[in-house]
Design brief:
The chain has 360 residues and is α/β, with parallel strands linked by helices. Helices cover 31% and strands 23% of the residues.
């Protein structure tokens, strides 16, 4: 079935709309689908218009996007809705736009993750409860939530302003607002553990996690103090060498699975090849990209996850430059994925491997 729609709708971290707009514009043009991005600073979303949305969504798979938390196909924009009856115009728009061709597996009523839109959370929740049974009765929604089917998204920008969009299963984030809800574990040495936990969820499929993390594998955590990322690797079954001149949490060392070396993580190298290397050091992004490439080029590890701290300006340009530099200096075939995660701030998280991957 061809995907209807008049634009792409992507969520992002508030303040990074220019980076997402630049990424979408450049990649769409390279794919032969030029268009233009429409957004406002700190709005938390970007609309990309002027291209065939169906063709564009196939040319720009969600997994390839870096600054997008969510990728949807916008099918309509409704303004001036009457607060007394928002449901009727939505149903009418669905009939006109989709011609009863869709039965959705789920309905998500959302709002952008921005300070301006957060007061809409209560409205979104109550409206979803009202709309859901109406859609089921009309045959637009399955009787039981089915994540294998496309989702209908109703996105409130204001009380009288709504976007209708479709989220395709397998080509969008499986979490509302594109945010995986993680809780800080009581035993985690620091909140930075949430970054690596989210990276494993977002950048790897369940089957890939099972294949790439096995009991007894060995890994290194560069710049480990106080040990958040080492803790995550340990919980994945790895034996970890934690490299940092600073201290580690005592419980981590008591586990017997973590060895602490007080050395400079940026210059240390292992005596024998490792399965994994992770790095969340505060350093210039190009220096980090070059050093991470050295690890893969020299065969010191097979898989790596690392963060690139971005500058305040030209962050999309710096991202593209660093990733190109990394792939060039690795001097071998590397599969690479990158994303600005919810738990990231002025940074992106990169996964790279020399192992062949095939996502389900």
């Amino acid at each position: 079935m061809s995907i209807p729609g008049d634009a792409l709708l992507c969520y992002c971290r508030p303040g990074f709309e220019p980076e997402l707009a630049g990424e979408l514009s450049e990649r769409a043009a390279l794919a032969g689908h030029p268009g233009y991005a429409r957004t406002e600073r700190n709005s938390g979303y970007v609309e990309f218009l002027g291209a065939d949305a169906g063709a564009l969504t196939r040319a720009l798979p969600f997994q390839s996007l870096i600054f997008a938390r969510q990728k949807l196909v916008r099918i309509a924009e409704l303004r001036g809705l009457d607060p007394k009856d928002r449901i009727t115009p939505i149903l009418r728009t669905l009939v006109i736009t989709l011609s009863n061709a869709y039965t959705f597996g789920e309905l998500w009523v959302e709002h952008p993750d921005s300070d301006e839109a957060k007061p809409l959370a209560g409205l979104a929740r109550s409206f979803g409860n009202a709309l859901r049974p109406v859609l089921r009765k009309g045959g637009w929604l399955t009787g039981v939530d089915d994540p294998r089917r496309s989702r209908l998204h109703v996105v409130f920008l204001a009380g009288d302003h709504v976007l209708l969009a479709i989220g395709e299963a397998g080509d969008s984030a499986p979490w509302p607002l594109g945010i995986p809800r993680l809780r800080m574990h009581a035993d985690a040495p620091s909140r930075s553990a949430l970054k690596l936990e989210e990276a494993l969820m977002v950048l790897l499929s369940e089957k890939e996690r099972e294949r790439l993390f096995r009991e007894g594998m060995r890994g290194a955590d560069l710049g480990a103090s106080p040990g958040g990322w080492s803790w995550v690797l340990m919980r994945q079954g790895l034996r970890v060498i934690s490299i940092d001149n600073g201290p580690l949490q005592e419980k981590l060392l008591e586990s017997g699975r973590v060895e602490h070396l007080r050395e400079d993580g940026f210059h240390w190298q292992p005596r024998t090849p490792l399965d994994w290397m992770v790095c969340d050091m505060v350093e210039q992004p190009r220096r980090v990209a070059e050093r991470m490439a050295t690890w893969l080029r020299e065969g010191w590890c097979r898989h790596t996850i690392f963060n690139l701290k971005l500058p305040m300006k030209k962050r999309w340009d710096e991202t593209r430059l660093c990733l190109d530099l990394f792939e060039k200096q690795a001097e071998k075939t590397v599969q690479l994925r990158a994303r600005q995660l919810y738990h990231d701030r002025e940074e992106i998280t990169v996964f790279a491997t020399t192992t062949s991957l095939s996502r389900p």
